[in-house]
Amino acid sequence: LKLFKFAFPNENVRCLSTVGHFGFECFPYQLVNRSLQRGFSFNILCVGETGIGKTTLINTLFNTNLKDSKSSHFHSTVGLKVKIYELQESNVHLKLTVVKTVGFGDQINKEASYLPVVEYIDAQFEAYLQEELKIKRSFFDYHDSRVHVCLYFISPTGHSLKTLDLLTMKSIDSKVNIIPLIAKADTISKSDLQKFKSRIMHELNSSGVQLYQFLEDDDAAAQANTSTSGLLPFAVVGSMEEVKVGKRMVRGRHYPWGVLQVENENHCDFVKLRDVLLCTNMEDLKEKTHSYHYECYRYRKLKTMGFTDVGPDNKPVSFQETYEFKRQEFQDQCQREEEELKQKFMQRVKEKETAFKDAERELQDKFEHLKKVQQEEIMKLEEEKSKLEEEIISFCKMKAASEAPYSQVTNMRKDR
Ligand code: GTP
């Protein structure tokens, strides 16, 4: 077009807009196409007491019936149930991972109830870090199970937060994006709900619990998010039941006094939550998980492993240098341990040797003693033997002497 204008500057040129896209304006379309081909993944952690409505809310959010069995109230410890679902809406594929607490808040001693949740979140970070540190990485088909959002279900007591809730949220707030929800909000009156919400927010703020901060950089999203933040904690109601309201069928809960419409913003904050999770903030939740929470985990982990970016002299240290240093340190330690082991071994050998020598000497002494005793015995016996022999000789002599006169008499008689 420019060339044309240059060639015919005074021509009255009719401009045609292009039908397709050219140049780098196509970049976003490439991204969309690639994302559609690859599909999306989203990992949700639902923390809340047994039967508080976790499954129902997830079903309502994704407008599907994700099969799941009910949990019992008699688990001796808190556990986590992980389910992966493949969902499709028009040509968008979603790999949804839902992790739910089992037996949360059911034990008499709830002191360590939050630990399995913390351990699960850390384990997913650790798995990702291990993949990242591999020589041959395969992120293309790697199932990234890091938790993108934690929906924290608060009991609709209308009173205040439980200690367990505060403790759990405080222990995971630096590891995951927390969005607090008041579950089964249809069980609280409108005025009570407002007071309950402000009490919860006050408690969370005074305990320093960090909640997910809604997007602020995009103008439209920022506007939506400021109104959204004011609604926290979202008062939600879940239901897959179709109820007739006028001529329309809506999802809601039917009560003797009327119908609660799940998707009516005057009845509850379900629509707001769905908008946040699926329409406006899903990518931001994933981004924050990767660039903030995972980064913090990675930093802490590599630091404890001895990796650092700057040395003691404040000069940058490369990964290679740190590795070499660590390897040398490890080799030195191995050598030290080997030396220690050798010395210990030699010491023990010496100890054993002296013990054997002592035992040998003892045996020798015993043997000598016995030999001596035996020789003395033999000498005694020899003496007694010679004494006896002497006695026998003298006896024989005596006998011969006594027999001599008698033989003379008998000989004289024979002569006669
Ligand atoms: P577990 O997985 O067994 O811990 O239960 P859960 O937390 O997934 O609860 P679930 O969704 O199975 O709901 C338990 C019961 O609460 C069911 O009878 C639901 O119909 C009911 N329920 C769920 N959501 C709501 C709600 O918003 N309001 C009311 N009033 N009842 C609800």
Automatic annotation (TrEMBL):
Coiled coil where? Answer: 320-398
Keywords tagged on the record: Coiled coil, Cytoplasm, Cytoskeleton, GTP-binding, Nucleotide-binding
For this protein, the record's Pfam families field holds: Septin (PF00735)
Is NAD one of the keywords UniProt gives this record? no
Single GO molecular function: GTP binding
InterPro entries from the xrefs?
A: G_SEPTIN_dom, P-loop_NTPase, Septin
User: What Gene Ontology cellular component terms go with this record?
Assistant: cytoskeleton
Entry similarity comment: Belongs to the TRAFAC class TrmE-Era-EngA-EngB-Septin-like GTPase superfamily. Septin GTPase family.
Q: Which PANTHER family match?
A: SEPTIN
Function (record text): Filament-forming cytoskeletal GTPase.
What's the protein called, per UniProt? Septin
